[in-house]
Amino acid sequence: MRFKTYLIVFGLLIIASTAAAATYTIIVQEGVIRQDKRFFSTAIAKVPYGQTLKELERQGDWLRVNYQGTQGWIHVSAVQEKKFRFTSLVGGKAQETTRDEVALAGKGFTPEVEKAFQGENPKMRYDLVDQIERYRIEDVQLEAFIQAGRLNEPGGAR
Fold first, then answer.
1. Which residues touch 25 (CB under 8 Å, ≥6 apart)?
2. Of the candidates 55, 75, 104, 146, which lies 20 to 30 Å from 113 by C-alpha distance?
3. pLDDT in tens, 9-27
């Protein structure tokens, strides 16, 4: 009987320690970990969609995280907290979401809404939207643009 009690206490301690460390999943195509908690700060790592990060610290809307040995800051808009669910311990089935569904949800579209929108706007050039989404700019070019335009973070941080 004593062994069962110790086993239950040990199991609860493991569950509590797992739940205490917040875990986040990247919900954008590519999350950017930055050197400082500013959008214009140097990018030090890029994290693909669906990867998991552990929170080390939180300051406002910025999380200090560790990804493959690199520590830095990521904005909460790029992640979703992964909630611990007891159903996973007792064999409950989690509902999966496809990458396309997450991307559409991020844009405010469901497949049904997008289809209805296309039906109402047949002249819409979706190929141009896709082209814009594929456009990438290097961090060096972005930094040069920020410097040339004398842009500052909200609140004057720079």
1. 50, 51, 52, 53, 79, 80, 82
2. 75
3. 555 555 555 445 688 999 8
